[in-house]
Specification:
The protein is mainly alpha-helical. It has a single domain (2-131, 145-290), classed as Orthogonal Bundle (ABC transporter involved in vitamin B12 uptake, BtuC). The protein contains ten helices and four strands, in the order ααααβββαααβααα. It has helices at residues 2-33, 40-61, 67-99, 104-126, 151-173, 175-185, 197-222, 230-245, 250-270, 276-290; strands spanning 131-132, 141-144, 147-150, 225-226. The strands form two sheets. The chain has a two-stranded antiparallel sheet. A hairpin with a 2-residue loop joins strand 2 (141-144) and strand 3. It is a multi-pass membrane protein. Belongs to the binding-protein-dependent transport system permease family. LivHM subfamily.
Length: 304
């Protein structure tokens, strides 16, 4: 019984890592722009496809490279190219609305439309057939008793923790992080202080989208089947995790992702898998009933 609990604990850490990486992108954009970027889950999907094409290109043209070298090249290229997709969305879709002072509802609808464009654009360009992600890493299984851990699972968990530490450092200890926090507090006064608001917003989208690209790569290595709609459900769940943790707070997004991962894995361990989403979302709903701002969220007050 104890060994089963420990095994499920590690499985939940891996699953929660995916949610946390995506939720961090949601909370970064919301913290700066008060914008829920509903296209973020589809940016995760685009990141997975970018990782697929980058890795297959490297393998085809540099056949002598070992797997770890291909992986070393694929990670930064995937993050950079996925960040370009996020910045393009900000430049084409969100910035014109922001400059015109559009109502927040129109921006949210635009974000939903951007997600649909990414999904159906992928479907139109690449077709509905699923793609199999190449095995870049040789799987190594570490076994202690009846508990098993793969090297990939350890890498996923470690990556999520390191990303959280890096983002926390950027936001709390750097000048650009201070500017991001200033914009979230008062975006109208910030330009008067000489802070280039568009530059800070672009940097925020670079951070959030690159994290989605990294999550897409790690997810594809763990579950190597790609399809155009793979980012829809996991994106919505990551958004819910960010809300439960306290959207706008990096700690909340990180812990909210792991909380959702733990709940889902434990539900599957003790109940039929068809009950997973029902029980998981019911628990999260109860948390929000008693803590509407999320675990780390703080209610905002409007000064008159």
């Amino acid at each position: 019984m104890l060994e089963s609990v420990i095994q499920n604990f590690f499985n939940a850490l891996q699953w929660g890592s995916f949610y946390s990486l995506i939720a961090l992108g949601y909370t970064l954009v919301y913290g700066v722009l008060t914008l829920i970027n509903f296209a973020h889950g589809d940016i995760f999907m685009v990141g997975a496809y970018i990782a697929f094409f980058v890795s297959t290109f490297i393998i085809a043209n540099m056949s002598g490279l070992p797997g770890w070298a291909v992986m070393t090249l694929t990670i930064p290229l995937t993050m950079i190219l996925t960040a370009c997709v996020g910045v393009t969305l900000e430049r084409i879709a969100y910035r014109p609305l922001r400059r015109k002072g559009a109502n927040r509802l129109y921006v949210v609808i635009t974000a939903l439309m951007c997600g649909l464009i990414l999904e159906n654009g992928n479907l139109a360009l690449l077709g509905a057939s699923r793609k199999s992600f190449p095995p870049l890493v040789d799987k190594v299984i570490y076994t202690v008793g009846s508990i098993s851990m793969t090297n990939l699972k350890i890498a996923v968990i470690f990556s999520a923790i390191m990303v959280f530490i890096l983002l926390q450092f950027i936001v709390t200890k750097t000048k650009i992080g201070m500017a991001m926090r200033a914009i979230s507090y008062d975006k109208f006064a910030v330009p008067l202080m000489g802070i280039p608001i568009d530059t800070i917003i672009v940097f925020t989208f670079i951070l959030g989208s690159s994290m989605a690209g990294l999550a897409g790569l790690l997810y594809s290595l763990s579950y190597p089947i790609l399809d155009p709609y793979m980012g829809a459900l996991i994106g919505w769940k990551a958004f819910i995790a960010a809300v439960v943790g306290g959207i706008g707070d990096i700690r909340g997004a990180f812990l909210g992702g792991f909380l959702l991962g733990f709940i889902e894995i434990l539900v599957v361990a003790f109940f039929p898998s068809t009950f997973r989403d029902l029980i998981a979302f019911s628990i999260l709903l109860i948390i929000l009933i008693y803590k509407p701002t999320g675990l780390f969220g703080v209610a905002k007050t409007t000064k008159i």
